[in-house]
Design brief:
This protein is of the alpha/beta class. The protein is built from 11 helices and 7 strands. The chain binds hexanoyl-coenzyme A.
Length: about 300
């Protein structure tokens, strides 16, 4: 469904399937924050495409319910671990436990935290609350998996979910922007450092993909939908499956020459914000004519 702004789009199989159903067969993927939101949508899609997934998060009941849903799609496809990625010891224990069952082929860094605030009101604890998840937690999991791949001499694949403001920065979400920019730097740095050993790292920078968690936290009720949509050239928000399919593509061996790259998926939103003359879309035909005459004069 090409919705305009639906708070929680259904996991839509309304899009034509762009991949072979066994695209990710024999791939084992760890998804941080895989119990809800975009992590869940991506996890479900990876399972549909043949992958086995391990999801981690802080809430056991949420993880168990999501894993059960995934196992309904394909029996035995999903496992879960309770793990707060802010805790390096918990991360090490989880990665040990995961590897005891079988080595991973890929890591999907999806877990994040964010709140909208005037930056001068943020306490140091508020800054740490965001950076400890987004930057530190992501680094802990990535390094723990990378170490294993290097020791085992196995190829690895790390895909991190950023935001478009990792590249531009953004007012009112400064710790999040700092953390996401840090993951972007990690992606590019490790793509070079580990690339020669068969480990590649890429990132996706999504624009607005509605989820219950982020939407409630980030957009005050009543914020004009129209105003938000007007920022996006395509005039709509993203469908979860569109993001999930991009993740599947980057996790597949067939995209194996892509390394150190970040792909925006935002309907052109950030470019519209950046372009100096984007506001000219507000001009009526009469005003265009007037401009033309002015120019001639
Ligand atoms: C200012 C705030 C605040 C707010 C909390 N704090 N909310 N300050 N404005 N809105 C302050 C608190 O007062 C406290 O400081 C400190 O932050 C820590 O607060 P806690 O509630 O104790 O934090 P914690 O329990 O650690 O939880 C933080 C969190 C949590 C881990 C980030 O919110 C969370 O689980 N979020 C996950 C879900 C989420 O955020 N999803 C959105 C991701 S979207 P003091 O000094 O008072 O002790 C994303 C991309 C956005 O990342 C893309 C948009 C299109």
């Amino acid at each position: 469904m090409l919705n305009a702004l639906n708070p929680i789009p259904p996991f839509a199989n309304t899009l034509v399937d762009m991949f072979q159903r066994d695209l990710l067969q024999n791939k084992r993927v760890l998804i941080t924050g895989g119990g809800t939101g975009l992590g869940k949508s991506m996890g479900r899609r990876l399972v549909e495409l043949g992958a086995d997934v391990v999801i981690c998060g802080r809430r056991e009941e949420v993880l168990a319910a999501t894993a059960a849903e995934f196992n309904d799609v394909r029996k035995g496809a999903a496992r879960w671990h309770v793990c707060d990625i802010r805790d390096p010891e918990a991360v090490a224990a989880m990665v040990d436990a995961v590897w005891k069952v079988a080595p991973l082929d890929a890591l999907l860094n999806n877990a994040a935290g964010n709140f909208i605030a005037k930056s001068e009101t943020l306490s140091h604890r508020a800054v740490d609350a965001i950076l400890s998840v987004v930057l530190h937690g992501t680094a802990y999991v990535t390094l723990a998996c990378g170490r294993r791949w290097l020791a085992d001499k196995r190829p690895g694949n790390v895909l991190s979910i950023l935001t478009t403001y990792a590249m531009t920065g953004s007012a009112y979400v400064v710790p999040s922007a700092m953390g996401k920019a840090g993951i972007l730097a990690m992606t590019r740095s490790l793509a070079v450092e580990w690339g020669s050993q068969g480990i590649r790292l890429n990132a996706i920078a999504p624009g607005p993909f509605p989820t219950e968690g982020a939407w409630k936290r980030l957009f005050p009720e009543g914020m004009a939908e129209k105003r938000m949509l007007s920022r996006i050239p395509l005039g709509r928000v993203g469908e979860h499956q569109e993001l999930a399919d991009l993740a599947a593509f980057l996790l597949a061996d067939q995209s194996g020459f892509i390394n150190g790259e970040t792909i925006a998926i935002d309907g052109g939103e950030w470019l519209k914000g950046a372009g100096q003359f984007s506001m000219m879309e507000e001009l009526s035909d009469d005003m265009w004519e007037q401009m033309k005459q002015q120019g001639k004069g």
